[in-house]
Every structure is written in C-alpha cells, then in structure tokens.
Specification:
This protein has two domains: about 90 residues, Rossmann fold (3-Layer(aba) Sandwich), CATH 3.40.50; about 140 residues, Rossmann fold (3-Layer(aba) Sandwich). The protein is about 40% helix and about 15% strand. The mean pLDDT is about 95. The strands form three sheets. Strands 1-11-8-7-5-6 form a six-stranded parallel beta sheet. A three-stranded parallel beta sheet has the order 3-2-4, sandwiched between helices. The chain is of the alpha/beta class. Helix 1 runs parallel beside helix 10 and helix 2 crosses helix 10. The relative contact order is 0.18. It starts with a strand and ends in a 10-residue tail after the last helix. The radius of gyration is 20 Å and the shape is globular.
C-alpha cells in the first residue's frame, strides 16, 4: 500500500476560494490586522504571505511592525488600539515574540471577538464548552484535511493525537471530539506509545520531534495528519554560503515509512502548514460576520 497524499496546496486553495466567495457576498470588506515584532526572517515572510493572501481573497490587510527593542507596553498599546478600531475585524499577533516580551500577557489584550488565531483564554474556554467562537487555525486545518481524506462524517473514528500543547494538541483533540470521534491524547509519559498509535484511525503527531513516528507505529489504512515542521541537517545538499551544512524540512512522521502503511498522509512541507493561512482567512470572515451582524455566507456556514 502506498498512501494517497493529502495535498495541502489543493485543500488550502479550496478553503481560500470559499473565503473569497464568501467575501464577495458581504456588504463590506473584512479587515485583518497583523502585529509583527522583531526582524525574524521566517516571521516576516510569513506575515507578508498572510497579507498577500488576505488581499487576494478580497479583504483588507494591515500590518503593524515593531523593532525587537519594542517594549511590552508598546505592543499591548497597539493591540488595545486595534481592539477599538471599528474597521478591524481580526487581530493576529505573530509568534514567537522576541526574548523579554510576555506572549501570554500580549495575547490577553486581544478582543476575543477579533481573536482570529483562537488563542485567548475566552476562545479556548468556548472551545472546551462547545460554544460558538473562533477556533485555532492549524487544528481546524487538521480536521479539514482528515475530512478531505475520509469524508465529512468522522463519527466513531479513533483519533490519537501525539502532543498536548495549547497551540495544537489540546485544541485539535477537542475539535475531533466535536466531530464525534473517540480521542486519545498521547504525550511524553504515555506507556508504549507505538502500540497506542497502532490503534488510531487518524494519527496526528504534533510534538516537534523529527521523524519520530515510524512506519510500524501506523495501523494499516490509517490517515496520518503530520503537524510537525522540523529542520534537520542535509549533508547531501552541501554547504550554504556561510559554510554550514544545509538543512531540509521534515515532519514528526517518517514520511517514506508511514506512506507505505497509511491510506492517506500529509507531506511536510506542503501539508498542514499551508492550511494555517487558509483557515486564518476563513476565521477573519467569520469574525467580521459575528461583529457586524452579517449573515454567514453558505460557503462558510459549516
């Protein structure tokens, strides 16, 4: 068996297209504001991509940039100002912040109605209580990709999530539970992790350990949704301009091995990571509808 790829480019494009179609039906343009602190190249590139895709979907994009020397008070002041701006529907604080800044304190400043990354305490509480609210983008993307592989009805599937982080592990577990799945959360203290993984219909590794999940951890025919994004040395690629060994990106699952056992698998790169921005656009539209009293277009009413 060779697993079918769950192509993040194809699935994310469907989500972005649905968001764009929804925007076209609204009486106004939703607006996403992104706050970027510091000069991390990866974060800057990511923020640029978010802005371009936001505008491509017919929405407005605002980026507030600060140097790494910015103070906690400055960051929290701009977040508070964006909360009060009636034209802004979604706020995203690009993480990680530079050392010395308190991420939890900054996130707490964001109005939950504009929390398009679903990271505030109120957003998390609404998820736990199954109340309406904005859900974290990457976990939502995982569920969408699982449905792409298995169909919209995931009832009764056993999902094993490896990792209990507040960013992915816990929220994705709750989202699959809301889909009537049976969910097990595994972590560093789990006894006989490989055996547990072999019981999963849907396996979601999200721990940041390169190629940890081996082929013999996967039940034949299972779906693997790999959240991990890790850089490892790639001597076969030679040296970079500074004389360092070049790297390549891999997931938390050993792709070649797992693909021989699973029925469907997400590649890394080109998988879950592409879904994050797409789901961010979706959340921005949903936030605008909730704030402004607009009916949610049928493209997103799910």
């Amino acid at each position: 068996m060779t697993a079918e790829l769950i192509d993040g480019k194809i699935v994310s494009e469907k989500v972005r297209a649905a968001a764009a179609a929804a925007v076209a039906k609204l009486p106004g343009k939703p607006c996403l504001a992104v706050v970027l602190v510091g000069d991390d190249p990866a974060s800057a590139l990511y923020v640029k991509s978010k802005g371009e895709k936001t505008e491509a979907a017919g929405m407005r994009s605002i980026t507030k940039r600060f140097p790494a020397s910015a103070t906690q008070a400055e960051i929290e002041a701009v977040l508070t100002a964006l909360n009060s701006d009636p034209e802004v529907d979604g706020i995203l604080l690009q993480l990680p912040l530079p050392k010395g800044l308190d991420e939890a304190s900054a996130l707490a400043c964001i109005d939950p109605l504009k929390d398009v990354d679903g990271l505030t305490e109120l957003s998390a509480g609404r998820l736990v209580l199954s109340k309406p609210g904005l859900r974290p983008c990457t976990p939502v993307g995982c569920v969408i990709m699982a449905k792409h592989a298995l169909g919209d009805d995931l009832s009764g599937r056993h999902v094993v999530v490896i990792g209990r982080s507040i960013l992915v592990g816990k929220p994705v577990s709750l989202l699959f539970l809301a889909e009537n799945c049976t969910v097990t959360i595994a972590h560093s203290k789990t006894v006989d992790l490989p055996a547990l993984c072999r019981t999963a219909d849907i396996l979601v590794p999200a721990v940041g350990r390169p190629e940890m999940v081996r082929g013999d951890w996967v039940k034949p025919g299972a779906v693997v949704i790999d959240v991990g994004i890790n850089r490892i040395p790639a001597p076969e690629k030679g040296l970079d301009d500074k004389g360092n060994v070049k790297t390549r990106v891999v997931g938390d699952a050993h792709f070649a091995e797992c693909r021989e056992v699973a029925s469907h698998i997400t590649p890394v790169p080109g998988g879950v990571g592409l879904m994050t921005v797409a789901c961010l656009l979706r959340n921005t539209v949903l936030a605008a509808c909730a704030r402004r009293g607009w009916a949610v277009p049928e493209e997103l009413d799910a």
